[in-house]
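Problem 12. The chain below contains 259 residues. Write out its predicted structure in token notation.
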Amino acid sequence: MTLLDPTKLSGWLSPHSIEWYHQLSELQRIYTYPWNNTLSKPNGESIFDEEVRKMVKNRKVLDVGCGHGEFTFHCSSIAKEIIGFDVTENFLEIAKAHKKANLSFVVGNIKQGLPFEKGEFDSAYIRKGPTSAYSYLTEIVRKGGTILGLHPGDESGKELPQLFPDLFQESSGTPILDKINGQLGISSFTSTELEHVTSTEYLHSPLDVLKLRCFGQTAQVFERLKKEDLVEITRIFDKNRTEQGLAITFSRYIVRLTN
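Solution.
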């Protein structure tokens, strides 16, 4: 049985485009993954989050691509002051419900730069936000300040195109890593370090495969794929599952910088 290629369906938006982020914010109001999973530990996200918590203590911090501000709010209990920056107004409406004296949020598009003063911040982090921010952070983070970045790895879910051909598309090369290196190459940081962390993600059910694929897409796209593909997805899932679920690669890049 051939699975549908969702990118050919009417209404499909390219993931992580500006239009996709706006649609996601309208559909969910918060940036959270709708599928059920279990992550082996340590993983890229757990390592990054712990490093950020240590970095922001008693500092003035910028969170670039803060989404609905949940992690920003968490860090506000440690930081001296923290500002969240994001392009999506719907996410920031939710974020601004968090009221603390040392916490604020600014809406803006990184393509127009970051609207802050030179050397204004002691540190900054990008938690799955835009890689294009790095070249601006050299200006607004003070000399000697630290910057952390977390980005999806090119190997994430690399098994899915083999398991579910057409539903997921093969990717070639390392486009995410190339983009990160391109941004770091045009920036003038004192020191740079990039670590690739791989672990395992277990998807709990066949529906979670569909939810992962349709993240940020409309209910119409999801329901069409569910109607046409769920039986075959279930057959493939059950054939390949482990006791914990369907095992796929969970891959993240961690960027560590000193300005």
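Discussion. DSSP finds nine helices and eight strands in the chain. Students who got a different answer should revisit the alignment rule from Section 12.3.
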